[in-house]
Design goal:
Number of strands of chain A: 13
CATH topology of the largest domain in chain A: Alkaline Phosphatase, subunit A
Strand order of the largest sheet of chain A: 9-8-10-1-11-12-2-13
Largest interface: A-B, 27 and 37 residues
Strand content of chain A: 15-25%
Largest sheet of chain A: 8 strands, mixed
CATH superfamily of the largest domain in chain A: Alkaline Phosphatase, subunit A
Number of domains of chain A: 2
CATH class of the largest domain in chain A: Alpha Beta
Number of helices of chain A: 14
CATH architecture of the largest domain in chain A: 3-Layer(aba) Sandwich
Helix content of chain A: 25-40%
Oligomer: homodimer
Radius of gyration of chain A: 23 Å
Chain lengths: 400, 400
Amino acid sequence: MDFDLIREVVVPNETKIVLLVMDGLGGLPHPGTRRTELETADIPHLDRLAEEGICGLVQHVGVGITPGSGPGHLSLFGYDPLRYRIGRGALEAVGIDFDLGPRDVAARGNFCTVDEGGRVVDRRAGRIDTDICASLCAELRSIELAGAELFVEPVREHRFLIVLRGDGLSDALSETDPQREGVPPLEVRAEAPEAEATAALVRAFVEQARERLRAHHPANMLLLRGFAKPPDLPQFPEVFGLRAAAIAYYPMYRGLAKLAGMTALPAGPSLSDSLASLRENWGGFDFFFVHFKGTDSAGEDGDFQRKVRRLEEVDAFIPDLLALGPDVVMVTGDHATPSTYRAHSWHPVPFLLRSRWCQPDPARAFNESDCQQGSLGVFPATDAMALAMAHAGRFTKYGA
Amino acid sequence: MDFDLIREVVVPNETKIVLLVMDGLGGLPHPGTRRTELETADIPHLDRLAEEGICGLVQHVGVGITPGSGPGHLSLFGYDPLRYRIGRGALEAVGIDFDLGPRDVAARGNFCTVDEGGRVVDRRAGRIDTDICASLCAELRSIELAGAELFVEPVREHRFLIVLRGDGLSDALSETDPQREGVPPLEVRAEAPEAEATAALVRAFVEQARERLRAHHPANMLLLRGFAKPPDLPQFPEVFGLRAAAIAYYPMYRGLAKLAGMTALPAGPSLSDSLASLRENWGGFDFFFVHFKGTDSAGEDGDFQRKVRRLEEVDAFIPDLLALGPDVVMVTGDHATPSTYRAHSWHPVPFLLRSRWCQPDPARAFNESDCQQGSLGVFPATDAMALAMAHAGRFTKYGA
């Protein structure tokens, strides 16, 4: 999608758009029944939306490419995921609700075990408890660096986040993780001339951390990977002229939305929490991104029946959502997570859009087969926002 | 579409191609019957063409983007409407049959009312009669400018066209319309160094016009907008190797075709006028663009039944068209104008192509649903000409 063209045709109005993302929505047939999770679930309200609306299958990155959660969501928000990339360190920061700023460089850290010769013998330090990780991070946080502020935050088990904040920092840095055991951690190197100063800061941090961790076997050393500045995203509210809000309980999805410039609204683990937040903030925003995690978790666990139940839970929430009177509702996923596959997959994902201005469309139910027959066919996820804007009357015509 | 590739494979032959554009063709379901205008109309001949031919839905500019008439037609002629843009002033000129040349800069004018302090109090001068507009234009036409020829032509009510003709003129000029009342008209400014001389000419025109209009309250001043040179279009007959003709009664559509290098043939308000012109000129041209306005007007008026009748009128004209023996017939629209929406819309538009070389295609009737199921799917309007050329045997193979 061409953001300059979008900006050229955007006009303000009072309409409301809801994007409901069921994480890992798409599925594959159960070997016993030959029916997918969506085809198995009893989801009359979603089926009705599909019948009244227009349907298709969205492709987030490209044919055969399995999207991570970052690219999966960014593409639904309209960003070309091949152009706008979120580095690993930035995604880790977002995933623990750390607000990355433009002067920050983030990296993923692992506590590891080294022998007396300094050679890595366990890249994960025996997967220490998160509590221990937190106390080691507190210890490292007191390291002082000349010219940068330092943040060290626990993530889970042996994983943590470091962030350097300062002027002129660069993320063009090599990793210190040798990716195998029996050799020492690598020294960080600048991969561009402008990164020399940052490389020196990281080396200073690593040296001091080595001293402080020496006595904390098995977590007696650390490895750093995925140095990244936050992505420089055009801001969603500016591009689309929308007051945009995110209702997402899990930090990563909330963080992705915040990177795009959306306002994070209160969210809880259940759909009724999301509904309460929607109701409370309905007047204050034009666009609502609502994230539902349960479908993905069930798919990752290979639990076909639980994924079916999660779909039915979402279905039960649809009437309350419609009672708010949205002008455009979109329902889709950020990628497929078929229960039989137990992981993110590359399959294009069911999509529906319902408004009062929908063209005739043959889809009669919300599932892979009907959506494949839908009028939108297989289409890029980055087109979804343009469809929503058009159906919400928020685009004027192009040319006279 | 890649014009260099087209030029590389074009070969001459004797075949005939007809592009019939029903303006604003696409529709939406009637709320009572759930059938669109095309699904409601009795159009056996168009249905037969759809059954024999290949069908799809054309998208003129991009997903969700509502095409104006200019981009809608240019894209059907094969021009990327995001690359080839027609400025407002140029389109106004085309719309009153003014033949813009490469040395011209055109602008839209409004007569307006100013108070004694020179502040705009009515941007439309009370929508004066077109007769008064014409006499004021005649008055202004006698203004002499050093270094440019001046044309001032009435359009309708308070609207008129000015054209400056001369060497080295530029359209990089700011508008004089303040877009609100209570402030004086703006002074025109050059928006690029090469436009300084043109800006001085426009200021001289405005100063003299102010004197001449002073006594003509309420039309005692003017505002200028949308300065534009004619677009620099590769010429359609050269690109496609076709002797190309336009049969369009309304000046804007005829003018668009002329900008693309087509020959304007005589046209009248009715389809029998178009047919007579087709018959008369059948031997002299290879390509005929035939424009039919009635479908759009009915849609804009929100008159579902009238749009249905217009479709049936076009249907009745098809046997006479086929009797001429065209090798390729395409029928489509430049954009949708659903009667329920009462305006141009973004929905992709039914398209059919019939020749003796059509692949199997499931569409059995000419309407939104069947065309959506057609073998062409949703496709860019800029591809239509390549399909026509291929089916007319006018492309040789690419590579050996």
